[in-house]
Design a protein that fits this description.
mainly beta, 66 strands, 9-stranded parallel β-sheet, globular, single chain, Methylamine Dehydrogenase, Chain H, 10-stranded parallel β-sheet, 657 residues
Length: 657
């Protein structure tokens, strides 16, 4: 037994159990390939006892009791080899036997097989058939908002608020609060078609059948989200507009609404109240442009998608906050375009997280843009294309949904013929976002076939919310909460909780995920992969060639012995390479970086960093910010980067050393 992990060694097979945020997770690791015919898939067969029998289900497997009740649902299956390469997998089940099948051709052993479990399932107190609950989702911290459209029967829409319980997300059949507009007595069928949340502010769009619409702002009361609530403020455009409210976004004290233009509302000094008009708006001046159907905001940067511009080819625009604030008619700072120009409806949906923008299409590719060193300006093409390759279901995509948190992007997709959907997960490679990238993993619906799983997605920290609005009269409409227990696409062997954990690795290779809280993580021996997660974490890689990601928070990271690669992440971090030839990346924040012993490469990243080479022949690069570079002992090379820097005990060069 180790931390929250129990293992049973059965010859060549190691069976393991993790008590993580998603509950008890079972998996298997095979050290060597078993004896089997050439070309035959790897097969692991489990026997069922008692009154359980296996029954195939939509994109998964059910364990069913003799009375017909489903005791457990396996909603997906992942497998990967020693290099982290995802392997094709599928289920087979009949009677008292369950088989996990893996195509291991070309795989480097050991191979890990890891079934996927859902963490939480959200329903609501007045559920009805085909009410399209899950048509929109949003999450911020421990609060989730799920929109419910009126559906084809013309019932009224709503938005439902869920607050994370002390024990974590689980199956919830009722909400903490129900949000509705104050104009009771009038039809509000489309209320809830779009939702957004940031901190204590929730925004709900109601585009209406005539595409004119209204947007509502709800503020968390002092006693919390509870009961049935009506809006604090109503946001309406000064001009009549098409499809107003089809997309909403909020960050800090600013709300952006999509329509025939992008409308910007700034929180008044006396708070959100009454009926308000926009303080600024943006309209594309490109000939043939159409509605600003998609909007996103991250602090002082707004992203606007115009998918029907230039004959449905589409475009997206970046707006940075002027010195005078969000006022009047706005002009773009940059225009984002796909390099191939072949996509249809580029610009819907869109998502923005810090300096990273992702632009969706109605095809199989989403485009990722990173803010250039010179800032958002001019016409820009993507850094990377996120290409979905492992399609599930029949038909063509009816559009995408997008979510992003940190270095993870999720693309939701539903097909038009059978309404089968999936959520595809992309992780930022060590080399950065570039080129054409295929998904690292795929999440399938734990529910019914054709439930529209993936129509909406949202992510905050390690919580991923996926809407499954049903779309068929006989299907339940739900939203699922999934906890990330992966580190850069590799299933975790040791998982923390949302609180402060002490996680200790084994003498072998571990994959450790800290999740939230101020964690202490010790990799131990072996070549470990560590994702510290949110919080102010202390991480020691131990011996071995480790790969460490500090992620969010003010972290203290020590690679230990071995040739380590350490990414500090956001925040003002302290990073020590330790013994060995290490590569240290400060990333954002004003970091203190020390290569330690060995021939190290240290990059400060953005922020005012203090970079020390330590013992050995090091290469130091300050990058952005006003950095202080000290080569230490050895023959070192320093380059300050783009700002005014100071350097000692090293040969100073320009560019990347």
């Amino acid at each position: 037994m180790q931390a929250n992990r129990i293992e049973y060694q059965r010859g060549n097979l190691r069976e393991w159990y993790i008590n993580g945020p998603a509950g008890l997770e079972q998996g298997f690791t095979l050290a060597r390939p078993p004896a089997k015919a050439t070309g035959e898939s790897l097969t692991l067969t489990l026997a069922l006892n008692g009154d359980l029998h296996a029954q195939t289900a939509a994109e998964g497997l059910d364990l069913v009791k003799n009375d017909g009740r489903i005791a457990m649902h396996y909603g997906g299956l992942t497998a990967y080899d020693a290099n982290g390469l995802a392997l094709p997998t599928w289920w087979q089940g009949q009677g008292k036997a369950v088989s996990l099948r893996v195509d291991d051709r070309g795989a480097k052993y050991p191979v890990t097989i890891d079934p996927f479990f859902q963490q939480g399932k959200l329903g609501h107190s007045n559920a009805a058939i085909e009410d399209y609950f899950g048509i929109s989702v949003a999450v911020s911290g421990g609060t989730i908002v799920v929109g419910k459209s009126g559906g084809p029967f013309g019932t009224n829409g709503a938005a439902y608020v869920y607050v994370k319980p002390a024990g974590g997300w689980k199956e919830l059949h009722s909400e903490n609060a129900k949000l509705i507009p104050s104009h009771i007595g009038f039809n509000f069928q489309y209320f809830g078609n779009s939702v957004a949340i940031d901190g204590n502010t929730i925004v709900v769009g109601e585009p209406t059948s005539l595409c004119q619409g209204t947007v509502y702002v709800f503020v968390k009361p002092t006693n919390g989200w509870a009961g049935t609530m009506t809006e604090n403020a109503k946001l309406t455009p000064a001009d009549k507009t098409g499809c107003y409210g089809s997309s909403v976004a909020t960050s800090t004290d600013t709300v952006v609404v999509g329509g025939s233009a992008a409308y910007v509302f700034v929180k008044p000094l006396d708070g959100w109240s009454g009926s308000l008009n926009e303080s600024a708006k943006f309209t594309s001046t490109t000939q043939g442009s159409s509605d600003a159907r998609s909007v996103a905001i991250s602090k002082d940067t707004i992203l606007v998608g115009v998918p029907e511009e230039n004959g449905l080819q589409g475009a997206a625009y970046v707006l940075t906050k002027p010195l005078s604030g969000w006022k009047g008619n706005l002009k773009e700072n940059a225009k984002l375009l796909s390099s191939d120009g072949s996509q249809i409806l580029f610009g819907s949906p869109i998502i923005l997280f810090g300096n990273t923008a992702v632009i969706g299409t109605n095809q199989l590719t989403a485009y990722l843009f990173e803010k250039p060193a010179a800032g958002w300006e001019g016409n820009l093409n993507e850094n990377a294309q996120l290409v979905v390759t492992n399609i599930v279901g029949e038909g063509f995509p009816v559009g995408q949904s997008l979510a992003i948190a940190g270095n993870t992007v999720v693309v939701g997709m539903v097909l038009d013929y059978d309404k089968v959907g999936s959520a595809y997960v992309f992780y930022k490679p060590v080399s950065g976002w570039s080129g054409k990238l295929s998904e690292n993993g795929k999440l399938l619906s734990p529910g019914a076939f054709g439930d529209g799983f993936g129509w909406s997605v949202a992510m905050s920290g390690n919580d991923l919310v996926v809407g499954a609005p049903g779309f068929n009269s006989y299907l339940e409409s739900v939203a699922y909460v999934l906890q990330r227990s992966f580190c850069k696409g590799v299933s975790a062997t040791i998982v923390g909780t949302a609180g402060a954990d002490v996680l200790t690795g084994t003498a072998g290779r571990d994959v450790i995920v800290g999740l939230g809280g101020n964690d202490k993580i010790y990799g131990g021996g072996g070549n470990d992969l560590i994702c510290a997660g949110a919080g102010n974490d202390i991480v020691s890689g131990g011996s071995g060639n480790d790969l460490i990601y500090g992620e969010d928070g003010l972290d203290t990271l020590n690679g230990g012995e071995g040739n380590d690669i350490v990414f500090a992440g956001t925040g003002n971090d302290s990073v020590i390479g330790g013994i060995g030839s290490d590569r240290l990346y400060g990333e954002s924040g004003s970091d203190a970086l020390n290569g330690g012993e060995g021939n190290d490469i240290v990059l400060g990243g953005a922020g005012n960093d203090r970079v020390i080479g330590g013992i050995g022949n090091d290469r130091l690069y300050g990058e952005g910010g006003r950095d202080t570079l000290n080569g230490g002992t050895g023959s070192d090379i320093c380059s300050g980067g783009i700002d005014i820097d100071s350097a000692t005990a090293c040969e100073i060069v320009s560019g990347v050393p």
